Fold this protein.
Amino acid sequence: MDQKQALENIKKIALEYAKDSQESIVPNEILSGSGNAWFYDPVNKTMELVKRGEKIVRNESYVDHKNRILSYVSGKVVLVPPEEIIEIGFN
């Protein structure tokens, strides 16, 4: 499996995890702060602009060498440092 296929698999897993976690009982989490922020997209190897304060779904089964968690926020799959994620509880 080449690197592009591996990254596509990661994106697929993250999107499936996001869907599954929305259906299960987990506390809601948001991206800290307000305004916009740039985070790295490992699938497309680009920086992506996401909105802070939006719901985030993280996949802790994938953490990179910088301890960033593969997450789904603002319709994008990006790597987010754990200190940027705030648990707001159940809605």
